[in-house]
Amino acid sequence: MLKDVTIGQYYPTGSVIHKMDPRTKILFTTAFIVMLFCINNLWGYLATLLILVAVTLVSKIPVSYIIRGIKGLVLIILLTVTLNLFMTPGTVIASLGPLNITMEGLKVATYMALRLIFLIVGTSIMTLTTSPIDLTDGMEWCMRFIPFVRRYAHELSMMMSIALRFIPTLMEETERIMKAQKARGANFETGSIIARAKNLIPILIPLFISAFRRADELATAMEARCYRGGENRTRMKQLVFENRDRVSFVLMLMMIIGLILTTMIKIPLLFPV
Amino acid sequence: MPVEIKNLSHVYSEGSPFEFQALKDIDITIEDGSFVGIIGHTGSGKSTLIQHLNGLLTPTSGTVLVDGEDIFSKKKNELIQLRHHIGLVFQYPEHQLFEETVHKDVAFGPKNQGLSEDEINQRVQQSIKMVGLNYDDVKDKSPFELSGGQMRRVAIAGVLAMEPSVLILDEPTAGLDPRGREEILAQIKYLHKKKKMTVILVSHSMEDIGRLVEKILVMNAGEVVFYDSPNRVFTEIETLERIGLAVPEVTYLMRKLKEKYPEIREDIFTVAAAKDEILKVIRG
């Protein structure tokens, strides 16, 4: 059950994208997200789709794995689509009792759905191809350019990497405790919602206790090794931009220019301009 | 209840890059009332195997028959019933404690079985006594103010209170002091002898396994290497060492002695038996 969560998971295949500098990937993804909100017609979305397909192919990550990430957010996407479909004023093209579907609503709903799906796919490609440690290293570097946050860049990224590091551990722990309580006849699968919520107590209490114990042990272990934050701290692995990063910066620029150009296309595709 | 494991295989995370075959075609029968020890290197599939016996894990192929019935063709409710009869004590069971008092925690299992208040109280008292704790001393304490060894016992009592007919323990003595180990193992032996419980004990201690169990299941990389009596298994020193295991220290001693006294037996794995054998040889 818990194994189906793919967001934030790392999927090693050793492709060029995996080897890339995490900073490049973060910048690329940021540019991608910004552009996703700039495009305003289906030509742009078509181009985005092509970019995603190309990146996915290069990354060697199975498409089924990426699609699994969307599954978890189907509900949110459906909700957005339904709301936009019925709530947007404009020329009515179909009615469902008191509800009206408008041409504008259909357009906004389609764009929203595509935007959300591409957003999830784009960001999950980044997390799937970057190990959590690399990711936080990259984040730390990026945070240095944000005023106010800069001072705490190291501490924040340390917290993030610890949190990421403990997600799988806590998931495993949850599963273990769940099994142990099941072995004592606990029932998590049947019964009313209230009964099921009550049944969570035997899982949550041991889980909290073990999380606190782990946090305490980790703090002690860090202190025993004289950890004292980011000041004067050197790194074992320095981040270096390589040729593949330079190439991808060029590609990034091309993506930005290309997507800006699509906003100027005046030929209608499915929807009027 | 005899437990028959039929051609059982289990693959974790099938179809992902983390795919891992934990069990390969396991085919053994655990007879009613027997005492079986499972040994194997870390990651050899011991824990995966025992979690199939009460249906916590579903096999990739093969099945488990308890009392001749296929447990994986059962409905969810029947599976929960089955877990009342097959008690499984996980590694570090003290991590599963959650109630405010020891009494309430031990009562969790019997309560899930739907027993009457009186019956529950009686079972809780009995099982706390069985693990060597004083019921009146601990019943109102929070399980979290007990020592590590006491917590372990309370957790084991929580499973015993369900009065299972098959008891599976995954390294019940890991991390305990010598006295705690002895007491817990003695209780397990008592349950097997007097209550005719079928016991399956996973352990890394060859000494404990050697002196307690009737049959040893040796596992390596998800496969059964041996499933035989300690006498037979502990003579296969070379194979055991090749898969990262060992035989009891005293067996090595007997082996050395055999170089000097060829008439001495070497299929000995308890100190008591070694003493008898050595005396027998010396006194001629």
From TrEMBL, chain A:
InterPro entries linked: ABC/ECF_trnsptr_transmembrane, ECF_transporter_component
Keywords: Cell membrane, Membrane, Transmembrane, Transmembrane helix
Topology term for the membrane: Multi-pass membrane protein
Presence of the UniProt keyword Transport in the record: no
Localization annotation: Membrane
Keyword Transmembrane helix on entry: yes
Main location per the UniProt record: membrane
Species name: Acetobacterium fimetarium
Membrane-spanning ranges: 26-43, 74-96, 108-129, 247-271
Protein name as it appears in the record: Energy-coupling factor transporter transmembrane protein EcfT
UniProtKB/TrEMBL annotation, chain B:
Its EC number(s): 7.-.-.-
Cellular compartment(s): Cell membrane
Pfam families reported for this sequence: ABC_tran
Keyword Nucleotide-binding: yes
Primary location class: membrane
Membrane-topology annotation of the record: Peripheral membrane protein
Oligomer status and interactors: Forms a stable energy-coupling factor (ECF) transporter complex composed of 2 membrane-embedded substrate-binding proteins (S component), 2 ATP-binding proteins (A component) and 2 transmembrane proteins (T component).
Family per similarity comment: Belongs to the ABC transporter superfamily. Energy-coupling factor EcfA family.
Function comment: ATP-binding (A) component of a common energy-coupling factor (ECF) ABC-transporter complex.
ABC transporter domain location: 3-246
Keyword terms of this UniProt record: ATP-binding, Cell membrane, Membrane, Nucleotide-binding, Translocase, Transport
Protein name: Energy-coupling factor transporter ATP-binding protein EcfA2
